[in-house]
Design goal:
Elements: E1 2-3, E2 6-7, H1 18-25, E3 44-47, E4 50-53, E5 66-68, H2 81-88, H3 98-111, H4 117-123, H5 135-149
Parallel strand pairs: 1-5
Antiparallel strand pairs: 1-2, 3-4, 3-5
The structure holds FE2/S2 (inorganic) cluster (2 copies).
One FE2/S2 (inorganic) cluster binds at residues 92-98, 129-132.
Protein name: (2Fe-2S)-binding protein
Domain 2Fe-2S ferredoxin-type: 2-53
Domain [2Fe-2S]-binding: 69-142
């Protein structure tokens, strides 16, 4: 498979989950392993540009496909607007849910550059944050949307 643009080849057990392959075999620990039951969304990565819960995907199923993790979000040393948005608007507290939130937010903005609050909330509906209460996550995504559109006018707020 290709992971963050680099081709990787490993001999693995058929039962190995993608989340464990990324973390334990490739050392990409930005992808978090939370519930292991497809509920929390901390493990979200992209499989061929589609956000998936990597605890529900066998690593072998990703063979021949493109995987992108949170480590692959920054480009040429510059953080992605969603990463900067989460920093600017305090879209995290403990940070456990954040990698998955970032990957979902990026996918949302790629498809819909100016989502409504309801659309943002729907996009992250499959992900659980125990800390923030979601308001600051929504603001962070709005910040990133405004930043990309060049319409952000005030510090930290869209
Ligand atoms: S660890 Fe995958 S959804 Fe929770
Ligand atoms: S910031 Fe702690 S779970 Fe979301």
């Amino acid at each position: 498979m290709t992971v963050n643009g680099e081709e990787v080849t490993r001999r693995i057990e058929g039962r190995l989950l993608l989340v464990h392959f990324l973390r334990d075999q490739l050392g990409l620990t930005g992808t978090h392993w939370g519930c292991d039951t497809s509920n929390c969304g901390a493990c979200v990565v992209w499989l061929d540009d589609e956000p998936v819960k990597s605890c529900t995907v066998l690593a072998a199923m990703a063979g021949g496909h493109e995987v992108r993790t949170v480590e692959g979000l920054e480009l040429d040393g510059e953080l992605d607007p969603v990463q900067r948005g989460f920093m600017a608007c305090h879209g995290l507290q403990c940070g456990f849910c954040t990698p998955g939130m970032l990957m979902t937010a990026r996918a949302l903005l790629d498809r819909n550059p100016s989502p409504t609050e309801q659309e943002i909330r729907r996009a992250v509906a499959g992900q659980i944050c125990r800390c923030t209460g979601y308001a600051s996550i929504v603001r962070s995504v709005q910040w990133a949307a405004a930043e990309q559109a060049g319409t952000r006018t005030t510090q930290g707020r869209p």
